[in-house]
Write the structure tokens for this entry.
Amino acid sequence: MKILVTGGAGYIGSFMVRLLLDRGRQVVVFDNLERGRKEIIDSRAKFVEGDIKNRKSLESLFKNELIDALMHFAAYISVEESEKSPEIYYQNNVVGSKNLFESAINIGNVRNIIFSSSAAVYGNPQKIPIPEDHPKNPTSEYGENKLAMEEILESVRSENPEVSFAALRYFNAAGAALDGSSGENHDPETHIIPLAIRAVIEGSEFKLYGTDYSTPDGTCIRDYIHVLDLIEAHVLALEKIQKDPGGYYYNVGTGKGHSNREVIEMVRKVSGRTIKVWEETRRAGDPDQLVADPTRIKTELGFEPKYSDLESIVETAWKWHSKSV
């Protein structure tokens, strides 16, 4: 089986590429390297440089490669940046994804799609934990993008019933390889765990955005999923749509939330060092709590996270960042 991984030069995509190769799959990586890094792409994969916003490059890709399944990770991911630059986000995430899905189906005859979605589609939840059938009310441009991308998938499936997809709604992806050999390295970086670790290593101030949320300690609560568990969910989802064609939505989380203050404290514990915390006002678009109800993915796919306790996540991230500084 040959699998196309868009965004395969990024954090999660590069982990996905490595796992697929380790399990005997052929992999083609498609990435424009705008925010990815070529050096982290596994050398066993075929790399094609291109942009999902460019239909010609997509047409060339699908004419030259016989792709059996698509895993789509090539989206911009910052809530804060999406509020500042909504048009840039819309063009890449929504228009680009539409180009990709249509080209894959119409030119490449691809019938199996795994999509990297987000818990941001829910917005401020009406209940915790959040099930997949919860109302969708995104509070950020990024969340709006992801919801629009899901709707595009629904639309292309209604026009092409032979197409199957699974949209995986990530909660907070985090962590690194167990040996610290690879990990999270976004530019710009907006995620709390790498930012807190960098602050410790560099002796700089860590900015804590928002202490007035409706949570026990006033800071945001998030459900963290280790990147190794997250990519395993993609393999299970692909097996599902190949066995039982259809359109599926799965939360990928643990069902347990941790506040930003708890994360900071865990970084202190794991590093054995202090963190200088500077409290800032909240960022636009950040919901108070996002905690998954993972019942569906556990029941239907047999998904069981192995590395997603907060301490393991921070320990692997600390090992990676300590090596990479």
